[in-house]
Amino acid sequence: MQRFEKRAVIVTGAGSGIGAATVRRLFSEGADVVAVDVTQEGVDKILGEFGGDPRVTGAVLDVCDRAAALALAAETRARLGYLNGLVNCAGITGVANVIDVEPAKLDKVMAVNLNGTVNMCQAFVRAVQQDEGPRAIVNISSGAGVMGVPNRLPYVASKFAISGITKSMSPELGPLGIRVNAIAPGMTRTPLVEYMLQDPEAVARIKAAHPIGRMGEPEEIAAVIVFLLTDDASFMTGAVVSVDGGQTACL
C-alpha cells in the first residue's frame, strides 16, 4: 500500500529500535521521511539502509533544543511543500526510586522525554497549522505511562506526562485539523532493553508479564504508529493505545 504518497513525516529517535522500524514502514508505504537522531552515527546508520534514496533524509537534532526543533519543522515544510506527520520516538530511560532519585536524573529524563516531545509538537504545529489535509502526531508513552512501575520513578513520571499531554493537546489541535494520539508499548526488543535479555530470569519475568507470552518487536509497534498517521484513523484523537501483548489488561 502507498498510503503516504506525497506525504512527509518527521521521526525522532530514528537511529534504532521503534524509531528505525517506523522509518522503514513509512518508506515502504511511500512517505518522504525525515529521520532525526541525537547522533550523527544514528542518522548515518538509518540512512545507510536506503541507498541514498531522496525520500529519506536525515537530521542530527537534540529534541531538548527548542530552537532547532522549530527550525527543522519549518525547513522541512518549506523544502517539500508539505508536512503531514510527526512521530516522537526519542526518549531515554531512568532507574531510581523516590528515596534515592537525584534531581539531576529526574530533570534529565523529563527534559528529553517530556520537554523534547513538547518541543517537537510545538514545532510541527507551528509549521503546519495553516495547511489543509491530513496532519497527525503520534507520541510514545509506555506501559509505564498507564501503570506504576517500581524503581523507575523518572521514566514513569515522564511517560504518564506523555499520556497526559496527548489528551490535553487533542482538543487544542482538533479545530486545526491536527490529530494527536499516543501509543503505550509493552516491553519491546530495542537497544534500551538488550541488557535485560542476557539474564534468563529477566526474560522469564518479561514473558510472564505479557499474556501473549513474549516481548514485542519494533516492527509490531511501528505498524500501529503508522496506522495512527493514516486516514484509516481519521476519527481518532486524544487516544493512548496500548500495544503491549496484554500486559496492562491483566492489572
From TrEMBL:
UniProt-listed Pfam families: adh_short_C2
List the PROSITE patterns.
ADH_SHORT
Signal sequence residues: none
UniProt KW keywords: Oxidoreductase
Extract the Gene3D superfamilies matched here: NAD(P)-binding Rossmann-like Domain
Q: Does the keyword Disulfide bond apply?
A: no
| GO MF annotation terms | oxidoreductase activity
Q: What does the similarity note say? A: Belongs to the short-chain dehydrogenases/reductases (SDR) family.
Quote the protein name from its UniProt record. Answer: SDR family oxidoreductase
